[in-house]
Amino acid sequence: MNVQEVQFRSLPLESSRAQFSPDRASFQQRAAAVAEAAATEVEAVDRDSRFPRKAIDAARKERLLGAQIPIEFGGEGASISEVADMCYALGRACSSAGMIFAMHQTKVACLVRHGVGSTWHEKLMRRVAAEQLLLASSTTEGQNGGNIRFSKAAVEHEGAEISLERDATVISYGAEADGIVTIARRADDAAGSDQVMLAITRDDYKLEQTLAWETLGMRGTCSAGFKLNFKGSSEQIFPVAYEKIHAQTMTPVAHLCWSSVWAGIAAAAVDRAQLFIRKAARGAGGNMPPGAAHFTSAKMTLNKLRAIIAVNIESYAARGRDERALSSVDFQSSINLLKVEASELAVTAVMHAMRACGLSGYRNDTDVSVGRHLRDVLSAPIMINNDRILASMGGATLMSAVPASLRD
């Protein structure tokens, strides 16, 4: 694969998508319409820490919130490749809108892969497709430092009814969501790692805000802290243990979608650097300005980032529903390293773009300002901290063989 030529591209259609849909070929155009809406309020979203309502309303209008839902449940069966393309497009226009869309699609992916066969979850899939429900995520709680494979709160059981009280330090766009997908200990006497996933809708729970969201970047994700109080039915617990959901869907889809958003942010910054260098070269009679070398580095770093994401999309799609392949040490190491590499490369690309533009990129009042992009992308290495991921991978990487050839 040529790193400089790689493109995000759609993979072969799954059998469930063989039926023709006039909308399928237009995912790109529909995502572009959402991105256009997002761009109209991006500055206000960042300045005011405001939920990107125009972008999400446009996503509903274009029916992209339910795009992943299988055709038989009223959706369009969008592939991970198509979803990643949408995340990239939205990330270029508005980092917060892109990240909200990515987190929502990760929850939908869990619902699609692990909810089939459960009457309650199949009904929710139909609702997501028909009503374009926005699903938030609640995985971080208390002082667990972002370790989502350990839960403090437990599901309380009383016959067929269940309840959950959870102190969530972060529920991104929780106040704006139509439902939440959350995790908890299976029962009061279960170990912290014995977890289940639940899908809950707005009429099942109450939120009490406990922490504000005043941050350097990604301000429009509105990732405040809340106390979550839920009462509902045991049917809302996914029929698969969270351990499997985490390995097969949650981690791979989250890392692919997040990385695509970060690549979109980097692409927007590189766009601005290119504009600056072209203007400067024209003004200097064709002579390249001092920042040209940084623009080249930014462009090449972006190409490398996109190539890494594309390879991992293909790797995930190729494994399909092969549980053994998805749970293998090699795949889990690769998909976790994608998050680390993509987040670092995105920051590097934006920094090169900033230096290519010089003072014009550093200022907030020019058409090539890169300040917002830099602030937003700096969230990437600390969103599930890269140091935590690398530390947790030590044992697994020791067990994995060193490749004997370039193609192993």
Index terms:
three-stranded mixed beta sheet, 14 helices, 408 residues, Butyryl-CoA Dehydrogenase, subunit A, domain 2, 3 domains, Butyryl-CoA Dehydrogenase, subunit A, domain 3, Butyryl-Coa Dehydrogenase, subunit A, domain 1, four-stranded antiparallel beta sheet, alpha+beta, globular
Please describe the topology of this protein.
Elements: H1 27-39, H2 42-48, H3 53-61, H4 80-93, H5 95-114, H6 119-131, E1 135-138, E2 156-158, E3 161-168, E4 179-185, E5 195-201, E6 205-211, E7 225-233, H7 242-283, H8 292-319, H9 323-326, H10 329-357, H11 359-362, H12 371-377, H13 386-392, H14 394-399
Parallel strand pairs: 1-4
Antiparallel strand pairs: 2-3, 3-7, 4-5, 6-7
Give a description of the structure.
With 408 residues, this protein is α+β, with helices and mostly antiparallel strands. It has 3 domains: 15-133, Acyl-CoA dehydrogenase/oxidase, N-terminal domain (Butyryl-Coa Dehydrogenase, subunit A, domain 1), CATH 1.10.540.10; 138-236, Butyryl-CoA Dehydrogenase, subunit A, domain 2, CATH 2.40.110; 242-399, Butyryl-CoA Dehydrogenase, subunit A, domain 3 (Up-down Bundle), CATH 1.20.140. The chain has 14 helices and 7 strands. The chain has helices spanning 27-39, 42-48, 53-61, 80-93, 95-114, 119-131, 242-283, 292-319, 323-326, 329-357, 359-362, 371-377, 386-392, 394-399; strands at residues 135-138, 156-158, 161-168, 179-185, 195-201, 205-211, 225-233. The strands form 2 sheets. The chain has a 4-stranded antiparallel sheet, with no helix packed on it. The protein has a 3-stranded mixed sheet with strand order 1-4-5, with helices on one face. A hairpin with a 2-residue loop joins strand 2 (156-158) and strand 3 (161-168). Helix 1 runs parallel beside helix 4 (80-93), helix 4 crosses helix 7 and helix 7 runs antiparallel to helix 12 (371-377). The longest helix is centred in the middle third of the chain and has 42 residues, at 242-283. The two termini are 15 Å apart.
